[in-house]
Design a protein that fits this description.
Elements: H1 3-14, H2 40-49, H3 52-56, H4 75-93, H5 97-106, H6 115-125, H7 132-143, H8 154-161, H9 172-195, H10 206-212, H11 216-231, H12 241-259, H13 268-284, H14 291-298, H15 303-312, H16 316-327
């Protein structure tokens, strides 16, 4: 019996009846030999962790554009916090931690530079629209490994695609990531907003802090514990009504005071304009695209979609660099 088979047997004997077991996976779109050490979902986690798109998340905005300071979140640290919250919940509920972690690490691979400002820009200019969850699927299926894709399992793909509030993941592990994403960004964005002087802890409405706690640490602890206790021995991942309502109230408060705050988002209009202009530039000058993307167009891929692929994959700094190369006059030399 291989190490992988021993691990699969351990899952059968230990995990919850509601867990997605590796042996019950629907598999991959392209069949390939199994690893003798790692089960399917662990391999998926490793593939995502080692891909280039994952590494680029460290230079992509989470909320605060061009934040001056070493402690503000990036898209990468957000992803890691989602993963940690999700693994804590999965472990307590005896669900599949490897599946949870793979979905969590991959859920934002398709996010644009400059956070949701970049996403809004591409959604505005692209005739087919742009949604980062769908782009994450394109990244792992059509862009990574020079177009070969990562060939992830169907359960991981499902969790990545459906990680937003409107999504309906087919596994409890996917449901955990969908809720952990919300828990993570509400709490760490609040922490960053307080650090940046956008608001103060005492500004948060008292009915929310009375229910969830009077610090980011306490609120995170309250939410995670509530998900675990409410979902125990359930075939769904939920919060209790009172905690869920307070969490949604805090989310609404964050939209009012942070996400839509002009002072906090003062640079977003510039970021939107920059992304729009990059899109138009490469649409007009596809020969300026890297070889992989030019070949995608030559093979019949929609040019607009491919341009979105390239622009969405940029880091903040790389987008600024490409904008300068494309639109800012350079010093003349012989």
């Amino acid at each position: 019996m291989t190490i992988r088979e021993q691990l699969e047997l351990r899952e059968i004997n230990y995990l919850s009846p509601y867990a997605m077991l590796n042996v019950h996976s629907k598999g991959r779109k392209k069949e390939e030999p199994q690893c003798d050490i790692r089960p399917l979902f662990q391999r998926d986690r490793d593939r995502i962790l080692h891909c280039k798109s994952f590494r680029r998340l460290r230079q992509k905005t989470q909320v605060f554009l061009i934040a001056r300071g070493d402690h503000y979140r990036t898209r990468l640290t957000h992803t890691l916090e989602v993963s940690q919250n999700a693994r804590t919940i999965a472990k307590a509920l005896r669900l599949n931690e490897d599946l949870v972690e793979a979905i969590a690490l991959g859920h934002d691979l398709g996010h644009t530079p400059f956070g949701h400002a970049g996403e809004r820009a591409l959604n505005k200019v692209a005739s087919k629209g742009f949604r980062h969850n769908e782009q994450s699927i394109r990244v792992v299926e059509k862009i990574e490994k020079n177009g070969e894709g990562l060939n992830l399992t169907l359960e991981v793909l499902d969790g990545i695609k459906n990680h937003q509030t409107s999504g309906e993941p087919s596994t409890l592990e996917g449901q955990i990531v969908r809720l952990s994403d919300k828990i993570a960004y509400i709490n760490h964005d609040m922490d960053d907003a307080i650090r940046g002087g956008v608001l103060k802890e005492e500004d948060i409405p008292k009915d929310i802090t009375d229910c969830l706690g009077d610090s980011s640490r306490k609120r995170l602890d309250t939410m995670v514990h509530d998900v675990i206790t409410s979902s125990m021995e359930q075939n769904k991942i939920i919060m209790s009504p009172s905690i869920y309502q307070a969490t949604m109230d805090l989310r609404s408060y964050m939209f009012e005071r942070v996400y839509l705050n002009h002072a906090a988002k003062a640079q977003e209009e510039k970021a939107v304009a920059l992304i729009e202009q990059l899109f138009y530039y490469y649409l007009k000058n596809p020969k300026s695209l890297p070889t992989q993307y030019k070949e995608m167009i030559e093979k019949g891929e929609d040019k607009e979609v491919v341009v979105c692929d390239f622009v969405a994959g940029m880091t903040d700094n790389f987008a600024v660099k490409k904008f300068e190369e494309s639109y800012v006059p350079q010093a003349w030399t012989l």
